[in-house]
Amino acid sequence: MPVERKDIQHCRWADQTLLLDEPYWLNAWDFPWSCHRNGHSHPVEDTRDCRTCARWESRETDDKKPEI
């Protein structure tokens, strides 16, 4: 059984701010990560807060390897 890392990179509610629509992506320099657990994106000021977030959920991943 894999160990679950409870950090922002593995949370289903986290997005890289740079990949969001305007005007959100403009905050990417100051806030590389955003959270949309409440239905709208907001910048994450300190990613360490994610470790104790009551709404943290593991990101779904597709373990299939691409066919080449």
Describe the sheet with the most strands.
Answer: 3 strands, antiparallel
Question: What class do helices, strands and sheet pairing give?
Answer: little secondary structure
Order of helices and strands: EEE
User: What is the alpha-carbon Rg in Å?
Assistant: 13 Å
Total strand segments: 3
- The DSSP helix count reads 0
Helix content: under 10%
What report would you give on this structure?
- 0% of the residues lie in helices and 12% in strands.
- The chain has a three-stranded antiparallel β-sheet, with no helix packed on it.
- The protein contains no helices and three strands.
- The chain is low in regular secondary structure.
- The protein starts with 13 loop residues before the first strand and ends in a 25-residue tail after the last strand.
- The radius of gyration is 13 Å and the shape is globular.
- The protein has strands at residues 14-16, 33-35, 42-43.
- The chain has a domain at 8-52.
- 13% of the residues are buried.
- Strand 2 and strand 3 form a beta hairpin.
List keywords for this structure.
little secondary structure, 68 residues, three-stranded antiparallel sheet
Give the topology:
Elements: E1 14-16, E2 33-35, E3 42-43
